[in-house]
Amino acid sequence: MKHLLATDGLDAETATAVLDTADELKHTLLGREVKKLPTLRGRTVITLFYENSTRTRVSFEIAGKWMSADVVNVSASSSSVNKGESLRDTALTLAAAGADCVIVRHPASGAAHRLSGWLAEAGTSVVNAGDGTHEHPTQALLDAATLRERLGSLKDRRIAIVGDVVHSRVARSNIHLLHTLGAEVVLVAPPTLLPVGVEKLPVTVSHDLDAELPAVDAVMMLRVQAERMYGGFFPSAREYSISYGLSERRQALLPDHAVVLHPGPMLRGMEIAHAVADSPASAVTEQVRNGVHVRMAVLYHLLASEGAAA
Amino acid sequence: MTLVIKGARPYGEGEPVDVLVEDGVITSIGSVKVPEGAEVLDAAGQVLLPGFVDLHTHLREPGREDTETIDSGSAAAALGGYTAVFAMANTDPVADNALVTDHVWRRGQEVGLVDVHPVGAVTVGLNGAKLAELGTMAKGTAGVRVFSDDGVCVADPLLMRRALEYSTALDAVIAQHAEEPRLTVGAQAHEGEQASRLGYPGWPASAEESIVARDCLLALHANARLHVCHVSTAGTVDVLRWAKDRGTKVSAEVTPHHLLLTDDRLDTYDPVNKVNPPLRTGRDAEKLRAALAEGVVDCVATDHAPHAPQDKDTEWNAARPGMLGLQTALSVVVETMVKTGLLDWRGVARVLSERPAEIGNLPDHGRRIAVGEPANLALVDPDAEWTVRGAELASIAANTPYEGMRLPGVVTATVLRGRITAREGKIR
User: Fold this and answer.
1) B364 assigned to some structural domain
2) H or E element, residue A298
3) Does B264 touch chain A if contact means CB atoms closer than 8 Å?
4) Across the A/B interface, how many CB contacts are shorter than 8 Å?
5) Higher pLDDT, B254 or A238
6) B142: closest CA among B93, B92, B95, B174?
7) For residue B36, which of A180, B20, B265, B365 sits 20 to 30 Å off, Cα-Cα?
């Protein structure tokens, strides 16, 4: 694996290898006082974030540091980007400075792919940490890791992805990865928050959350991305909450074993009830914890395990 | 100045003939004895067509001479078989007054490779708020007959109505970039399966179709001439057919890239494929080709849009929309329309020359190849192929989506008023 740009096209074997490595890393570090492995000593990892982020950037930073990589954080607001430097020039600068891997978050869909092209000559790996409304592959991998822990195999499991699908890179990455790993995905959202041509994706579509909940093994709530919205995608937060929020009443419709996920940050009270978010069914904290191990595994497969996967 | 074109087949039909051109006018067709001192174009096996006319060119001068100038753009046009081009108004400063339009016209004359006809802006500064001085531009040296805010739709229906009404007194046409702006906020690609998969905010087909429908109704109401720029959707073809059947004075153009390319190319994430309106689906392209063959879409226009590397070799959202078109248009038309049997060479003359000249009101271009007609001509080798290399094109910019592609049909010579402007890929 040279880059991790998307889950669309990521084969089951590679995805499973990353998840297995994450699992192994998690158990290796379990109970250790000093969480440090020498695996990536001497490697330089740069996080290049053009959008605000806490959990993803910190997660990657910790992942790199636990693997003994030198991690440098660059945020657009405090770099030459602020002076109008293009993404291409910034990328070439980072490669010239010796980056082995650039982890990029960018508001433009496809930015990570473009970056990988510009960095091809330098041999620098690229990890997509979220590009526009396209993909966020490590989020999908950490979601899958969390679901595997709770449910075992994902084969033939039914997962509902609920809410703002159209603006969600998390949803896109999850749709592809969950399908690849054998799960069945149902999207539950108002028509305005579903992508055009959604029927061509490997999913079923529903507008009735109540009807879907009793038959799912997990429900993945999405963040309503108000910052990407214009022109009234739904009438009001209240109506959205009534129709698509995961309330305590709705949670009661879920099977006992069902897992509740949310990529965060959560809009409590609107997307998900406070009590549901903190309930035993909720795996939100585990998602964050697993995120570090999954990102360690991704860095391992990119930087430490030449030829580990194609 | 005397020119003899030896052994060409006008419109690719009949036996080869010689064409004698004297002082810019065709004076004899048949077997011609070469007069002393005459220049000779050996055109054996080649198709002779009226010189092409592009209703939709961006020459970028004034304002972005780093990407194209009237000089370089004229050269690209001549090499592409064009004898006249309409230079769009979205320059800097905007061509919304006679000072700018007359300047563009004069520069075109000075360069002398093609007739450069400036398009005047419909509204001041292309801002859609106030009509530009259409009459002044029409009565100026340039004699502007096509007005457009291209790149920006005249979205206000009342302003569009007024523009259409006002233009009737000027024997002019209002050319509209049909894009309902509220439906395309943030749009980056054709709204459909591909854009959804890649996470690009969608540019819905209905944003074009709804404006075309509205404008056709307004043009019918005002008895004015409307020209629809770069039609891109199957639905727009239906609207145009309906409007024409009702007697609307509406014409329409399609770009070569909308005939050949589809949103499948978005998979590369390369903004060389970013264009406005966006590349649509295969079904749209198929319907556009059929509509062009049938005449529901009147002509091909390039929307030649040169851009600097820093405006294209970037992430998709940051990239400017547009692609080069002048030197590849004929080949793409051959690939999509001639090789498929949708058009013969007479049809090619109609869509690349005759109809655009009529729409743009150019009496000396797009004429029949006949004695007494002005010698604005293009010679095409129908059997030759070439490989497109952006860096080798005459434009300053190199943003061609056909890089490395092998295309059929080579323009071997272009003649403007009896003078060879381009021959064997070189400017004369």
Assistant:
1) no
2) helix A284-299
3) no
4) 76
5) B254
6) B95
7) B365
Burial of B217 (C-beta count, 10 Å sphere; 0-12/13-18/19+): middle
CB B143 within 8 A of CB B120: no
Tell me if B93 is assigned to a ligand binding site: no
Whether A259 is in a domain gets the answer yes
pTM for this model (two decimals) = 0.93
Provide the pairing of β-strand A218-221 with A259-261. Answer: parallel
Residues A164 and A92 placed together within one structural domain of the fold: no
Computed over every residue of chain B, the mean pLDDT equals 97
Nearest CA in chain B to A112: B315
Interface predicted TM-score (ipTM): 0.86
Q: Report chain B residues whose CB lies below 8 A from the CB of A134.
A: 198-200
**Domain span at residue B295?**
50-359
Q: Using the beta-carbon criterion (under 8 Å), do A133 and B200 form an inter-chain contact?
A: yes
Contacts of B201 in chain A (CB under 8 A): 133
Residue range A187-202: mean pLDDT, rounded: 93
- Please judge whether A172 and B202 are an interchain contact, meaning their C-beta atoms are less than 8 angstroms apart: no
Of the pLDDT bands very low, low, confident and very high (cuts 50, 70, 90), residue A309 is: very low
B18 in catalytic set: no
Domain residues for the domain of A30 are 12-136+288-303
Interface touch B316/A110, C-beta < 8 Å: yes
Q: Same domain for B111 and B180?
A: yes
